[in-house]
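Sat 14:20. Reprocessing the chain from the morning session after the first attempt stalled halfway. Input below, unchanged.
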Amino acid sequence: MRTPTRTLIAAVAAGIALAGLAGCSSDAVRQATDLGSSVASSVAEGVQGIDGKAVQDGMASVAGGIDGALDTALKGANVTSDGKVPDGFPTEDVPLVDGTVLGGGSGPNGSGWVAQVRAGSVDDFQAAAQQLTDAGFTESAKRADSSSAFGMFRSDAYRVVLTFSDGNDGVTATYIVTPR
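Finished this time. Tokens:
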């Protein structure tokens, strides 16, 4: 039997991978991301009673695997550290949290983008989530603790998977954006 923490990790990882699918038809991406959102929402409802330690352990495991998930989701797209969002990133529609842009990458044929920002703290996740909802996004899942945070958001035009992770170099906000 799977533990709630393993289920949470699996659902979050699946959501991240599904949200950044590249090289698939738009219908396939939409169906996969809808499934990922549904699974993550179900898991979010199911973990209400789990103690903070279990959530923290799950979030730390997910945060540690973000780089690998990005490589998989964007099919090897080069995620740069040049201090710029990738070409084509929908900056007008997807507001980024205040901080220093670290870099990003994009999937082929406009299938998705990733942008990373050095944020002040994990607590800035709440401000980033509010920026997205103020820009017309609907939140479908959200979890946060003292060292990491995760959220899934949808608008008429885009899906966003947002993670915050506190690492050795500071707090990194990672936005994975796919068109709908």
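Residues 26-46 form the longest helix (21 residues).
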